[in-house]
Amino acid sequence: MKLLIAAAVAAGALGAASAAAAELKVLSAGAVEPGLKPAAEAFKRANGTEVKIQFNTAPQIAKKLANGEPADLVIAPPAVLDEQAKAGKVSPEGRLVLGRVGAGVFVRAGAAAPNVATSDALKQALLAADSVVYNTASSGQYIAKMIEKLGIAEQVKPKTTRYPDGASVIEHVAKGKGNEIGFGAIPEIKQGEPTGVKLVGPLPADLQNYTTYAAAELTGATSKDAAKAFLAYLATPEAKQAFKTAGIE
Fold first, then answer.
1. Gap between the Cα atoms of 212 and 27, Å rounded
2. What pTM value is reported for the model?
3. 237 Cβ contact list (under 8 Å, min separation 6)
4. pLDDT tens, 78-125?
5. Measured between alpha carbons, how far apart are the two ends of the chain, in Å?
6. How many C-alpha atoms does 46 have within 13 Å on its Cβ side?
7. What CA–CA distance (Å, rounded) separates 223 from 242?
8. For the chain, does the N or the C end have fewer beta carbons within 10 angstroms?
């Protein structure tokens, strides 16, 4: 009887270890969510590994890593990964570039779409807007500099609202009642369209800003084999197509 109990305990421990090994934790920038989610679902169907993803802004990811947040993979702009590699948090090897994301302009569904085809047209649209909304993440920092470049920072500042993440920006515009103009990553805007916003278009070519995103394994990863397998999957044509379909070039 004692032998049977011991065997059962050992089998249970082995099962628990297998379950733990079949789970992968990812810290990811929110801009790639529309491409990463379907890729993670396809990866799970292929090998049974559950991919648990926390979507955050790049500054939030850096803070989580600094505080010792446990994870296996991180997806962020290369500059963030470089910084974390210097801190010993991210492996300097095996990094995979997933693609780049452009910034876009959006309004509430049903609202008149402003002309944003040129920098001058965008400038006039911002001056005419009731409110301007964007995030405080790296993409939002660029938008703030862009508005300064257009020479209208002082006029726009009193009617500007900023949020920590893109999802909150989309929610604000969707619930608006007037002439709100929002800025965000194009894939995030497309993903948010069912909630009541619509993409007007990308920033004008002379103002466009692309943010590249890459994936890397964390040095403290507990599911190293699963992390390497997921990185390998993200490099496949199937995964690349999922990102491309989501607007991640």
1. 16
2. 0.76
3. none
4. 999 999 999 999 998 889 999 999 999 999 999 999 999 999 999 999
5. 61
6. 16
7. 24
8. N
